[in-house]
Amino acid sequence: MIASPSRRKIERLLIVRLSAMGDVIHTLPAVQLLRDAFPAASIGWLIEERWAELLCAPDTSRRGPRSPQRPVADWVHTVNLTAWRKSLWSLRTIEEIATVWNDVRAMHYEAAVDLQGAIRSAVLAQCSAASVIWGSAEPRESPASILYTREIIPYGRHVVEQNASLAAEVAGKDNIAVPRPELPREPRIEEQIEDHLASRQVRSFVILNPGAGWGAKRWPAERYGQVARVLGEQGLRSVINYGPGEEALAAEAEAASHGAAFGMQLSITGLIAITRHAGLFIGGDTGPMHLAAALQVPVVAIFGPTDPARNGPYGTRSIVLRSAASPTTHKRRPEPDQGMLEISTEGVIMAAMRLLSEETI
Fold first, then answer.
1. Among 127, 253, 257, 270, whose CB has the most other CB atoms within 10 angstroms?
2. Dist CA 115 CA 136 (whole Å)
């Protein structure tokens, strides 16, 4: 029988949470809980390269003593599964895979915790050669559980609470207080963001995020611009955050704002930096919304087909708007959710003004 980690000291622990932005952010409190439980342990994190900035600022070493630039993980291991699948048998891919796994195995992890619950994440946890692999008894992809040596029944309604309950079991804790997550700070990027806002004479501002993972979760971009126009009449500028492929959404929102909003396409580190300065965030169920919540920025969350009780803003003041007509589903439909279209511009403005009145920007 394998000794329980609550009765022995864990010196090397691997976290597996590969993607995506919001899911990684939802995992951070659980890893902070493990950090607090095993303060002397070396904690590694296996993550997709595109999301690594959520753990480690650019130009910062991905291993060694922790710092504000890499506050949680002692070692950040990255994979690039999408690119690897496209050229699986190329020499470059083989060399990259070998480098990653040499690094992972060189750490001699005693235990791995799969906080993704997918077949690929469970396989990667097993490939680490850790003797104990923890995972949910109810993983997102049920075959993943075959690869775990220890299964944990999660509890809690919100996904943050579910992740924390898994970590608490690993730590041997019965009662948990979900800790606040820590995100990297990069002074150089923060200074650039501050300079950019100053050049536009922006002091008090709101972040608008018209994009989302798929069409059914998107509130019309034009309505974001209409919200920005009204907020502008109250002396508040709006920054429209957008990512690759969302340029048209940002342009539509900016045009509808009549000059009250402007778009910014930012790196993850830049988005973290600007969000720290925001007075309010308005958007749907997206990674940037969960980032704002993690940084305790007030949030007006516009929800459609996903369940806000499980995926809503966590740990911050928020107002969630959702029509009773919206079905709960994760089907990636490209067309807008009809229930979401019932959420009016006026309703979003009222929610925003209520949160803004509670705390001066």
1. 253
2. 8
Q: Say whether the peptide bond before residue 20 is cis (omega within 30 degrees of 0).
A: yes
pTM for this structure?
A: 0.95
pLDDT confidence of residue 8: 55
* Number of domains, the chain: 2
Least confident window among 3-17, 148-162, 254-268? 3-17
Q: How confident is the model at residue 206 (pLDDT cuts 50, 70, 90)?
A: very high
Q: What tokens were used for 297?
A: 């920025």
Say if residue 22 is in the same domain as residue 137.
yes
- Domain hosting residue 228, numbered range: 187-358
Q: Are residues 198 and 91 in the same domain?
A: no
Using DSSP's 3-state secondary structure scheme, residue 315 falls into: coil
With a CB cutoff of 8 Å and minimum separation 6, the contacts of 184 are: 53, 54, 55, 56, 57, 60, 68, 69, 70, 71, 269, 272
- 198 and 150 share a domain? no
Do residues 194 and 166 share a domain? no
Say what the pLDDT of residue 175 is: 77
Query: Where among 171, 199, 220 does a domain terminate?
Result: 171
Please report whether residue 182 resides in a domain. no
The least confident of 73-82, 168-177, 269-278, 344-353 is: 168-177
Two structure tokens written together for 235: 């002396």
The CATH number of whichever domain residue 330 belongs to comes to 3.40.50.2000
46 and 124 part of one domain: yes
Give yes or no for a contact between 116 and 95, defined as CB atoms under 8 angstroms apart: no
One-character DSSP codes across 212-244: -SSGGGPPPHHHHHHHHHHHHHTT-EEEEEE-T
Q: Tell which residue, 225, 224, 230, 219, has the closest CA to residue 255.
A: 225
